[in-house]
Structure formats: C-alpha cells, structure tokens
Amino acid sequence: MISRVSLQRRVSPWLLGLKMTTVETGLLGEHLAVKHLREQGRRVLFRNYRGLHRGEVDIVARHGQVLTFVEVKTRRSAAFGRPADAVTQEKQLLIQRGALDWLRLLGNPKIATRFDIVEVVLVDGELPRVSVMENAFTFADSSMAGR
C-alpha cells in the first residue's frame, strides 16, 4: 500500500486503508525519503544497512561524487519539534559505525562522504513534507574521518 502514496497526495489513514503504527509510519517515511532523494538526482545504493559493529544506516546514496549516509526521521506531527532533533549523539555514533563498515566493504576508499538527515512530516489531511539536511553531522573524531 505504501507505493500508492506520493509526495503529491495528502496523508490520511483511510487513504492507506489502515491505522498506521509507528513502524508503518517509519516505513512510509523511508519510502517518501527515497523517492525525494531520487527526484533530487541521487542514486540510492542500499536501504537499511546493518553493519558488523552495531552500525546502521537508513539509506546509502551517491550525490554526485559524494557518498552519503542518510538517516530518515518521520513524524506524524510537528508538536514534538523537528524530526532531526531525535538524531541524538548516540544515534549519530550508530550511523557512523555503519558508515565505517560500509567503507570497509569498499576497501576504505578515499572518497568524499557526508551525513544527511531527511525529515518527513506526515500530518493527516496534508501533503507530506520532506526536507533534506545536508552535512547534518560529521564523524565524531578526526581519526574516524580519515578512516
């Protein structure tokens, strides 16, 4: 059912034919994030990557010559602040671990990397709002950045 929802349609549980759980809301947000990133010309390489060292990345994509590691945060309301506010330092470390594992799989290439956050807000009866925060955070320390 998720494929029926686009960025041009208003969000409503009846449109989806169900009352969305938190997990379903997150899946819909990731679907809309991928669609948005592709519309921006990014090449999505992998979704929901789980690294060997407890790392996790929602989306791995190419944006020109830059390899991006993207965290998607979806909310059903703006009442609790911006979705990106939920990307804590602990969550950033998990994403960084996943990114390092991904880079190790590639043989640790010296390519440009970036951490982005895609915010998706799904308010009942409104069009989905999707925005990208490029360079939302960096590697925790310089030794990680140099790989």
Automatic annotation (TrEMBL):
GO terms for molecular function: nucleic acid binding. Pfam families: UPF0102. Transmembrane segments: none annotated. Coiled coil: none annotated. InterPro entries: Restrct_endonuc-II-like (IPR011335), tRNA_endonuc-like_dom_sf (IPR011856), UPF0102_YraN-like (IPR003509). HAMAP family: UPF0102. NCBIfam families: PRK12497.3-3. Belongs to the UPF0102 family. This is UPF0102 protein BGE01nite_33600.
